[in-house]
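Weekly structure sync, notes
Attendees: PL (lead), two postdocs, one rotation student
Agenda item 3: pending single-chain targets
PL asked that the sequence for the first pending target be pasted directly into the notes so everyone works from the same version. It is reproduced below exactly as submitted, 398 residues in total.
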Amino acid sequence: MFAPEKHAIILGAGLAGTTTANRLAARGYTITLIDAAAGPAEGASGNCAGVLRPLPARDDKLLAQLTRAGFLATSKHLQALEDAGLQAKTGQLWGKTGVLHLARDAVHEATQRDIVTAQNPPANYLRFVDRDEASDLCGWPVDAGGWWFPGGAWVSPANYCHANLLQYAASIATHYDTRIERIAHEDGVWRAFNAAGVFLAEAPHLVIANASDARRLLGDWLPIFPARGQVTHLPAEAGSAPRCVVCRLGYVTPEIDGQRYTGATFLMRDDVTEVRDTDHAENLAKLDFILPGFTKDIPPETIATLPGRVGFRPASPDRLPIVGAVPRLGNEAAPPGLWLVNGFGARGIVWSAMAGELIADSLEGTPPSLERKLADALAPTRFLDKPKQRQPNSARER
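Predicted structure, written out during the meeting:
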């Protein structure tokens, strides 16, 4: 028997939901995980590969501090999953190839160099490399230097989600193909109801991790919007360039099981689920900007035959995740025990473990594992009593 107070319902089985489930289960919670899809990682978290790296800044501003904390937390969590032998069951979780973040132009390159000089980070975390060394690292002649993150990696989001659930399978009950139409706080517990009005689960705690569908349940005060992203899949030979992940207003992975992945588009107000040739063309243009001449052997007429994947990332106006106690349910103050872990945008891998630990800290009433000012910056309350929040711009660098 489990302690009733250590039971939580989690809506959503992507990176946000499964990592939170894992972190709560590690602290002795029993989890009821519910998702409308047929299994975990069916949304944007089902992409074949994504990038794990921080994003430094000259003044070490909030985003830089948060991505650093997130990068370190996810790296630690993935290593723990690997050490627990989960890769043998899920497939490869990540590839610790390092990540090369090339400068956009000469001004950006100077800024990158200055940041490393001023902050003097440990060399095993970040160092600046010139164009020649960057070319050697990735195995392709590039036209700029940039940041080298030796601990950076590509990550399989889908395998990551599966590993999160498998590690504590005895504590996590999963319910798929189950859409929750309504939530309510009754008799001191949270209940989740289906379309017929039948409550399917109840617990003292309810965590909303179901991407942009959270607005339907919590209300329009919550500015989470779906951002369409398309990734292009290309055939790749083992050992071919690039040997590491390379980013530059986009990204490209090394060869992973005979494929490499490049992208991704980021479009608001776009609900097309089908793969589009125009988006493949955009991704290939980004790829040529990253690795000059890389796509010269891809005939334009074959773009329509390229495979790819479309996912919808939940984005917030300030591009930060939304993690913490929910302050409002519709137009009323929310009863206690309602939590949100959402708004990961294009950085779901980076935010996942940090957010999951923060929710676990909150439910347990322990000091946050994240610095207090950083945790406060993620709280859902930041969107209350503000003018209507606009959707993020599609064009801004992520």
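Discussion points:
- The CA atoms of residues 39 and 226 lie 20 Å apart.
- The first strand starts at residue 7 and ends at 11.
Action: rotation student to compare against the earlier draft before next sync.
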